[in-house]
Amino acid sequence: MIIVEDLHKNFGGFQAVRGASLEIAKGSITGLIGPNGAGKTTLFNVIAGRLPPSSGRVFMDGEDITGLSPHELFHSGLLRTFQIAHEFGAMTVRENLMMVPSNQKGETLWNTWFRRREIAKEERALAEKADAVLDFLTISHLAHQKAANISGGQKKLLELGRTMMVDAKVVFLDEVGAGVNRSLLNTIADAIVRLNKERGYTFCIIEHDMDFIARLCDPVIVMAEGKVLAKGSAAHIMENDAVIEAYLGRGLKNKVKAHA
Questions:
Q1: What is the mean pLDDT of residues 75-102?
Q2: Domain tally for the chain?
Q3: How buried is 254 (Cβ within 10 angstroms: 0-12 exposed, 13-18 middle, 19+ buried)?
Q4: Residue 61, Cβ neighbours under 10 Å: how many?
Q5: Are residues 42 and 170 in the same domain?
Q6: How much is the pLDDT for 260?
Q7: Average pLDDT over residues 13-36
Q8: Cβ atoms of residues 202 and 1 within 8 Å
Q9: Does the predicted model carry a pTM greater than 0.70?
Q10: Which of 7, 97, 174, 175 has an alpha carbon within 20 to 30 A of 44's alpha carbon?
Q11: Which keywords accompany this UniProt record (predicted)?
């Protein structure tokens, strides 16, 4: 579904991504791990159109999407979330969801004057869809809460809900577990698995929690120093000496051996 070919991204003399090539298969939940500074988030930003590549190509379903804007990619079904959730705090959780679909009738002054009935009908449909999303994510009780007042984990669920309002094809999740308690992290994991299995979503996830990665992701891609270092199952990755040296640490290797 997503193919990245020999991607480079430089910031002046600093090479954040250095010839990364990878593939994200349709219908997969792919993990992307690596030490801080490995280039993971920069890679996400280039794929999602927030940064132009210095060189290399990105393809989605065989179409060259290199350099397309986030807005253009949004309409193609490619969405990206952030480590720090970007909610509209003064709006309710439900309103945050309802505003996601673009080209709504109420966005033009002409329609607000002369097509009020159509606007009202559209808003009812959006509200029903938002309520269905909230129910799917088990956060219906937050519908009328101001988004600024919900917890960090609930904001991550809200971001996931936004992708459901436009029926995304592929979603890039950046550290979805950062600052989230274990109970909510399990809720997020369950939602990701259900979206993958029931609705055919493709996911690529940056995450440092290896238990979370091992539970959800196959395959797992490892980056280090801007390059792809390894790819395989979580179990295979945790036994790879090069990966251990670059990222996981000797303590994890000893832990894996102790449980073997």
A1: 84
A2: 2
A3: exposed
A4: 14
A5: yes
A6: 46
A7: 95
A8: yes
A9: yes
A10: 97
A11: ATP-binding, Nucleotide-binding, Transport
Report the DSSP beta bridge partners of residue 203. Answer: 29, 171
Label the pairing between strands 170-174 and 220-224: unpaired
Per-residue pLDDT band at 75 (split at 50, 70, 90): confident
Residue 209's SS3 state is coil
Q: Coil, strand or helix: which one is 78?
A: strand
Residues 6+ apart with CB under 8 A from 111: 105, 118, 119
DSSP string, 104-151: -GGGSHHHHHH-HHHHHHHHHHHHHHHHHHHHHTT-GGGTTSBGGGS-
> Are 97 and 130 a contacting pair, CB within 8 Å?
yes
* Maximum CA extent, the chain: 71
98 backbone φψ class: left, alpha, beta (φ>0; ψ -120 to 50): alpha
The residue range of the domain holding 60 is: 2-86+165-258
Q: Does residue 169 share a domain with residue 82? A: yes
Would you say residue 243 lies in a domain? Answer: yes
Token pair belonging to 129: 């869809």
Q: How far apart (Å, rounded) are the C-alpha atoms in residues 25 and 4?
A: 12
**Who wins on pLDDT, 99 or 106?**
99
The full DSSP string for 91-105 is SBHHHHHHT-SSS-G
In the chain, DSSP finds a helix count (H) and a strand count (E) of 11, 10
CA distance 120 to 99: 14
Q: Which of 68-77, 79-88, 105-114 has the lowest mean pLDDT?
A: 105-114
Do residues 76 and 15 both lie within one domain? yes
CB contact at 8 A, 89 and 155 = no
